[in-house]
Design goal:
Bound molecules: zinc ion
Radius of gyration: 18 Å
Strand order of the largest sheet: 3-4-5-6-7-8-9-10
Number of strands: 12
CATH superfamily: Metal-dependent hydrolases
Number of domains: 1
Strand content: 15-25%
Shape: globular
């Protein structure tokens, strides 16, 4: 089945992959894997993992997971962009147990004033709280705003973020944030207001003082494949304690003209290890432990 959907963040696109109601039986049932093992054959006890990927945006998630496993990437945390995305991710988690964590949220670079969509995602979050691992991707818009409005995102966007943060606290879930530049500082204040204990600022771009405040709260930040080539991201690695660093692809977001995949994570990790003068296994172990802390052991 092929669905067409218009998405303000990513432009009109053709989305492939089946759409399942949460209650619907899954075609083909459960794939190989279990909640505790068999995630990637002879993976080490602390394998690589991808902290932020849009698994439902690939036309063949099974192939993406197979390539990840072959590369030694045992687990990924898949983030939602809207209600339909939440439902697709729930189906993928059930199909690939132990290998896919899921977050329910509404991407902030969308039309945040669509209250029906906000309510739908919040309802899905409550209804499937036992299976949902985190709240995300939520945050504040930046790229869709005119440059003159970026320092002060619309109040509706802050209200929507607050609603998700309150839900995360109530349900005991970590928050996966899209909040960059001015948005990072504002989101940090909202996290404090809501009392969010565990959060990940994905692909962070922020001033050094904002980064310092994020780190002092104990939150995580991540780097993407950009760390292979971009000075800004390499600099971020040097400023963040390894115990608060995560690795992500944000796939299928393209890097160097190619759609990123979780299978790229070992290359990202190798770049981080080289920057820090550590061996790759040390980075891998620490980043895995970071994931266990972010997800309260649900990894
Ligand atoms: Zn994303």
């Amino acid at each position: 089945m092929v669905m067409r959907q218009t998405d303000t963040a990513f432009g009109p696109r053709q989305m492939t992959g089946a759409f399942f109601a949460p209650e619907a039986p899954l075609p083909g049932g459960e794939e190989k894997g279990s909640p505790t093992g068999d995630r990637c054959g002879d993976c080490p006890a602390s394998p690589w993992w991808d902290a932020h990927v849009h698994l439902d945006r690939y036309s063949d998630p099974k192939a993406v997971l197979a390539r990840a496993r072959a590369a030694g990437v045992a687990f990924l945390l898949a983030v939602a962009t809207d209600a339909a995305s939440c439902r697709r991710l729930l189906a993928l988690k059930r199909r690939f147990p132990g290998r896919v964590g899921i977050a329910f949220g509404l991407h902030p670079e969308r039309k945040i004033w669509n209250r029906d969509e906000v309510e739908s995602v919040l309802e899905l979050l409550e209804a499937h709280a036992d299976e949902v691992d985190a709240v995300g991707e939520v945050g504040l818009p930046h790229y869709i705003l005119p440059e003159t409005e970026r320092a002060r995102p619309p109040w509706e966007a802050v209200e929507v973020l607050d609603a998700f943060l309150d839900a995360a606290v109530r349900l005991g879930k970590p928050v996966l944030l899209h909040a960059v530049y001015h948005g990072a500082s504002i989101a940090l204040e909202r996290l404090r207001r809501a009392g969010v204990a565990r959060a990940h600022f994905h692909w962070l771009k922020a001033e050094p003082d904002v980064l310092a405040r994020i780190l002092s709260e104990g939150y995580f930040v991540s780097v993407t494949p950009d760390v292979l080539v971009r000075a800004r991201d390499r600099d971020l690695v040097r400023r963040v304690p390894l115990a608060q660093l995560l690795l992500e692809t944000d796939g299928p977001w393209p890097f160097d003209g190619q759609p990123a995949e979780p299978a790229w994570i070992p290359r990202v990790g190798a770049a981080v290890a080289a920057l820090l003068g550590l061996d790759e296994a040390a980075v891998r172990r620490t980043v895995w432990e970071n994931g266990r802390r972010l997800l309260n052991g649900r990894i």
